[in-house]
Amino acid sequence: MAKKGREKNTKNKGKHSVLVERVKNKKRKEKEDRKARLKAITKAAQKASQEEK
């Protein structure tokens, strides 16, 4: 049987899911930024090593 009246705890669950998504997006962005920085560093190192030869 379904409950009658107001739904229980949906507001808090909604807030929590928003916060969790925000944290996940932050981690994902940090990971992508780190990968991009490493790629730029390796590209610069390869270019420098090719210029030495």
Explain what the structure shows.
By secondary structure, the chain is mostly helical. About 80% of the residues lie in helices and about 0% in strands. It contains one helix and no strands. It has one helix at about 10-50. The longest helix has about 45 residues, at about 10-50. It is rod-shaped, with a radius of gyration of 24 Å. The termini are far apart.
Provide a brief overview of the structure:
The protein has 53 residues and is mainly α. The protein has one helix spanning 10-52.
Morphology? rod-shaped
Q: Taking Cα atoms only, what radius of gyration do you get, to the nearest Å?
A: 24 Å
Q: Helical segment tally?
A: 1
Q: Please, what is the average pLDDT?
A: 91
Let me know the number of strands. Answer: 0
> SSE string, helix = H, strand = E?
H
Q: What structural category do the secondary elements indicate?
A: mainly alpha
Report helical residue fraction: over 70%
Q: What is the CA–CA distance across the termini?
A: 78 Å
Low-confidence stretches: none
Strand content: under 5%
* Major sheet details: none
Biased composition (Basic residues): 1-16
Region (Disordered): 1-53
What does the secondary structure layout of this molecule look like, with pairings?
Elements: H1 10-52
Key phrases:
single chain; 53 residues; mainly alpha; 1 helix; 81% helix; 0% strand; rod-shaped
